[in-house]
Amino acid sequence: MFRVTAGVVGLLSVLAAVPPASAEGNAQYGVLIISRERLEVATSCEIGVYLNDQLSGRVFQEQSTSFNLPPGPVDVRLRQLPGQMPGCASGVEDQRSTRLLMKAGEISKYRITLGQNGLGLTRADLGY
Questions:
Q1: Distance CA 13, CA 7 (A)
Q2: Which residues contact 126 (CB under 8 A, 6 or more apart)?
Q3: Has this prediction a pTM greater than 0.85?
Q4: What CATH number does the domain located at 27-123 have?
Q5: Left, alpha or beta for 14 (phi > 0: left; psi -120 to 50: alpha)?
Q6: CA distance 32 to 108
Q7: Can you name the residues that pair with 32 across neighbouring β-strands?
Q8: Are 36 and 65 a contacting pair, CB within 8 Å?
């Protein structure tokens, strides 16, 4: 009987040391959604999403990608990637990045657009 009681007390002390699971732990990150759902960029080429100069995602027509990012600044650059489709080889392109400030618990959505300086991001509605 003593062993059973000691075992239960030991188990309870271990469980008390483990922090409870919480949905608030996800609030330490912000969500960045980059969408190519509209046909604003008239190319069938794949577009690479670079976060802080690292290729982090690829987006085809009518797709989107999302990233969980820590709070703070992040540089986002878009680039047409070479692929299987003819005409997708990139030439000289603008190397400018867009600096976004991520906040913990915030969801930010941007869509890819084509402007005078090449590919860019435009803030979009979340749609829900």
A1: 10
A2: 33, 107, 109
A3: no
A4: 2.60.40
A5: alpha
A6: 5
A7: 67, 108
A8: no
